[in-house]
Amino acid sequence: MRFDLTDLALFLHVVQAGSITHGAARANLALAAASARIRNLEASLGAPLLERRRQGVVPTPAGLKLATHARVMLAQADRLRDDLAGFSGEFGGSVRMLSNTNALTAFLPEALSGFLAAHPRINVELQEMLSDEIVECIADGSADIGIVAGTVDTGALETYAYRSDRFVLIVPAAHALAGVDEIAFRDVLDEDFIGLDRSSALQRFLARQALVAGKPIKLRVQLRSFDAMCRLVEAGVGVGIVPETTAHSMRRLLKVVPVALSDAWASRELLVCVQSRQALNARARRLLDHLLADTGAAPFMPAPDAEPS
Length: 309
Description:
By secondary structure, the chain is of the alpha/beta class. It has helices at residues 5-17, 20-26, 31-45, 61-88, 101-106, 108-118, 131-139, 201-213, 226-234, 244-251, 282-292, and strands at 50-53, 56-59, 93-99, 122-128, 145-149, 158-172, 182-183, 192-196, 218-223, 240-243, 256-261, 267-274. Strand 8 (192-196), helix 8 (201-213) and strand 9 form a beta-alpha-beta unit. Helix 1 (5-17) packs across helix 2 (20-26).
């Protein structure tokens, strides 16, 4: 069998993304090169590893077995790299980190700038994802550290409290609600809404809250980012619900106004999640400790009936 660590890492990216195209992008390889590596890997192993479908790829039984061993081998390679770095005095490498939009835009720039300045030989591969997607990636070993909404189901992952934030309604500066201090979600359901993509945990949660209130959300547009939402709100297309930190940062750039929501679910926690601190390589442990240094964090588990993300 002929393969290298690049092949194994690429294969895991493809399995996690469900697509050779997206897997190649995550591995920083051209699509043609990634496809050739996958074909050569299958030829070397003498078995198909991926089932090609119209909407992507899924691993075959042989592919699932390879993915299991690949995670172990790549983790061992990381530990080997860390151990040998101690002899050369050049401790370095990469940490794979995932974050939801709120933490990425509001809290991580300052935290990561301090860490990277203190550790010039460590790189952070940071990717934005939805909270429920992040949990899956941390659980299957595709990434080292994740930051998610405290209300997403993290299963058996080890979690730590990170930051607190609130959801707020955001409206155009000239909107009738711009002068209101606080309002209940049910009282704005007659408005046209700008929302996140239908697959997002937040949008699913808001849809359920609307049903509880007896009215559906009237979604005009659905997008993948809070920034795009705020720009359409400024244009008068509708109103939206975003994290308070996002609303205040956008208010400096756009003619939008945040309005507090009186609903209890509007408050939420952000969590750092890992499979376990003990299982992290030395680089990832240093980043985890840096993120938690100013929080006084202790292991945290969300309430069983918590919902939004």
